[in-house]
Design a protein that fits this description.
By secondary structure, the protein is of the alpha/beta class. It is about 40% helix and about 15% strand. The structure holds glutamine. Glutamine binds next to strand 4. Its EC number is 6.3.5.7.
Length: about 475
Amino acid sequence: DRIAAVDGDIHAFLHLNVGALSTAAQIDAVRAAGGDDAAALSPLAGVPVAIKDVLCTIDMPSTAGSRILEGWIPPYDATVVARMRAAGLVPLGKTNMDEFAMGSSTEHSAYGNTHNPWDLSRIPGGSGGGSAAAVSAFEAPLALGSDTGGSIRQPAAVTGSVGVKPTYGGVSRYGAIALASSLDQVGPVTRTVLDAGLLHDVIGGHDPRDSTSIPDAWPSFAEAARLGQRDGSVRGLKIGVVRELSQEGQGFQPGVLQRFRESLALLEAQGAEIVEVSAPSFEYAIAAYYLILPAEASSNLAKFDSVRFGMRVTPIDPKTGLPGGTVEQVMAATREAGFGDEVKRRVILGTYALSAGYYDAYYGSAQKVRTLIQQDFARAFSTADVLATPSAPTTAFKLGEKIDDPLAMYLNDLTTIPANLAGVPGISLPAGLAPEDGLPVGIQFMAPAREDARLYTVGAALE
Ligand code: GLN
C-alpha cells in the first residue's frame, strides 16, 4: 500500500514482486503453526526487502538499469538473494540504479530518475538511489545495494539511511552483475544500524561460488550493533579523523562539516578518543579509481555482445536495404543502442587505459597509487581503531545539476572511494540535517579489513 501511495512520485522500484504478499502469508502460517519449523525461522523471516537491480533474481527481471538487459530474467538467484529467501525474507521488488552502477545520482538509469523522498527535486544518490529511496520513503524496511565506489554509502547518506560496504570478500558477489571486480561489494541499506547488522548476518559469510570470498567465520554483526547500544561501548575507542577528508577548502558543504564534528563530539562524550590521522595519498583516490574502474568495467561489459545476453539490434545493410551485417556490425549496433552515454564513456576510457603503449602510464600508475592508499590505511589504523570522514561532500544535489558534467559527478565520490581501493569496510549513518538546506548528512566510519564489527558497534553507539 505504501509503495502504491508514494512510488509514483519516488520511482524507487523498477519491478514489483507480485508474489510478495503470498510468500509473507506462508511464513505467517509457519509461525502460527508453531513447533520446530516456527522455531527455525530467522529473526528477519517475513520482513520484505528491496533488491538493487544489479542482483540476479530468478523470478524477476534483472537489468542493472540498462536498456541492453531489458526484460532479462536470470536463470539463477544471486547468493545473497538465495540466502535471504532461505532465511524467510520476502523480496519486494527490484530497485532503480545508475546503468551498470556507474554514477552518483541514479540519473544514468535507462528507466528514468528516482527522486529523493526528502525533496523530490533532488537526487537520491547513486548508483543505488532506488534502494536508499525505498528505505527512506518507508516503502521497504530493508534493502540490498552494491558498493564499488560508494553506491551504498553515498545514497544512504543523502537519504538519511544507514548503508554498509562490507570488507571485500565478506559478502558473496556471485550473481551480482559485475562493474569492477576488484572493488565490488554487496551490502545492506536500512534505517538503523541494528537492522543492517541483522541483514549482514543473513547475506554474509563464505561462498565457494565467489573465488574472492573470505573462507573464515565472521562474528554476528547484529551482536556488534547491540553491543554499541550499551553504555560505555566506545570508551577508549580511538577514532581517527582523516585530515585530508574533513577540512574546509576540500569541497565540503559547511553544514556537512558542522554535523560531522558534532557527531564526533557525541562519541567523545561517550568516552571515545578523537585523534587526527593523515592519509596523504587519499587526494589521488578519485583519479586512480576513475582509471581502474573503467579498465575493469570495459572488460566486464564485453559480454554484452548481442549474443550471450539481452538485446540484439541488427543493422540495415545500406546496399540491400535489408537487416543484416557481420558479427561485428551487429555487436556495434547493439552496444550503440543498448548502452547509455556514461557506460560508453567508461568503456572507451577503460579500453584506452588498457591499450598497448598506454597501459603502464595509466592503469599501471593507478595501481601504484592504489598501493599507496592501502599503505596510508595501514599507517592510519596503527594509531586509530576506526577512521571517520563525512560520507559525502554535500547533501543531495538537484536533479540535472551535474548530469552534463561527469567530473563534477565523480568528485561527489571523494570520501567513499578510498575504502573500495583498499578493500576495507565502511558504514554511513545519519548525522542530522544540514542547517543550510535541512537535508540529511551522513557520517562515515571505516575499519581495517575483516573488522566490520567495529563499524556496527561505533555506529550503534552514535545512533
Ligand atoms: N559513483 C561511483 C561511480 O560512478 C559509484 C560506483 C559504485 O559504487 N557502483 O563509479
